[in-house]
Automatic annotation (TrEMBL):
<dbReference type="InterPro" id="IPR050109">
    <property type="entry name" value="HTH-type_TetR-like_transc_reg"/>
</dbReference>
<feature type="DNA-binding region" description="H-T-H motif">
    <location>
        <begin position="44"/>
        <end position="63"/>
    </location>
</feature>
<protein>
    <submittedName>
        <fullName>TetR/AcrR family transcriptional regulator</fullName>
    </submittedName>
</protein>
<dbReference type="Pfam" id="PF00440">
    <property type="entry name" value="TetR_N"/>
</dbReference>
<keyword id="KW-0238">DNA-binding</keyword>
<feature type="domain" description="HTH tetR-type">
    <location>
        <begin position="21"/>
        <end position="81"/>
    </location>
</feature>
<dbReference type="InterPro" id="IPR009057">
    <property type="entry name" value="Homeodomain-like_sf"/>
</dbReference>
<keyword id="KW-0804">Transcription</keyword>
<dbReference type="InterPro" id="IPR001647">
    <property type="entry name" value="HTH_TetR"/>
</dbReference>
<keyword id="KW-0805">Transcription regulation</keyword>
<dbReference type="InterPro" id="IPR036271">
    <property type="entry name" value="Tet_transcr_reg_TetR-rel_C_sf"/>
</dbReference>
Length: 214
């Protein structure tokens, strides 16, 4: 998988590379970073080529144009959960479904805070209805569902609890808080700027999960 950390696109165009693999990687990283920074409004062939430091014809040759780049970014998002959220439980022995959801909720919150592009996609999901947004959203949602199912294993929620709906509400709340933090640094008067602020959010999430799942 393409590792964004291998190339930094924030300091101007990426140095030109001679081999195809390196050029493809430079184009992909430039496209992903540009999309995260400017959204689809600033997402064009010329802009990506400038950011990647390559001829725009190479984007058509390697990706078939912008649609191909969107597909590549979507495929990368399909592994976002697995790559950013550890499958081990950090030494925590999971006895109940509540143990699981407590751990996964915090993992999800931290991973989302660390990825500007995924945060933007979450925001686009509720504000834009375009083929590009739907493609990226479906890839992310599918990956999250598979991850939850794999991590759940044989653990089951308490009887009488609609886990699917409850978890949707829980993860939606986490997503909204992270987006609000990026936009204004607060939500409903609750500060979302410092690590101490997010520690409070984490504590509240744990209490909610325990109140629901025991």
């Amino acid at each position: 998988m393409l590792q964004i950390s291998e190339i930094t696109a924030h300091e101007g165009p990426v140095a030109k590379v001679r081999n195809r693999a390196g050029t493809e990687r430079a184009i992909f990283v430039a496209a992903r970073d540009l999309l995260a920074e400017q959204g689809f409004q600033g997402f064009g062939i010329n802009a990506v080529a400038r950011r990647a430091g390559c001829d725009k014809q190479l984007i058509y040759r390697y990706y078939g144009g912008l649609d191909g780049l969107i597909e590549a970014i979507g495929a990368d998002l399909g592994t976002w959960v697995k790559d950013r959220i550890p499958e081990d439980t950090g030494g925590m022995f999971l006895l109940t479904y509540g143990d699981l959801m407590e751990k996964l909720s915090i993992y999800f919150m931290e991973a989302l805070r660390d990825d500007p592009l995924v945060c933007k996609i979450v925001a686009w999901e509720v504000s834009q209805d375009t083929p590009q947004v739907r493609s990226l959203s479906e890839a992310r949602t599918k990956a999250l569902g598979k991850w939850l199912e794999k991590m759940r294993g044989s653990l089951t929620p308490p009887k009488g609890v609609d886990a699917a709906t409850t978890n949707a509400v829980l993860f939606a709340a986490i997503q909204h808080l992270v987006i609000s933090a990026a936009v204004s640094g607060q939500f409903a008067g609750v500060a979302l700027r410092t690590n101490k602020d997010w520690d409070k959010v984490g504590s509240a999430i744990r209490r909610l999960v325990r109140a629901i799942y025991g």
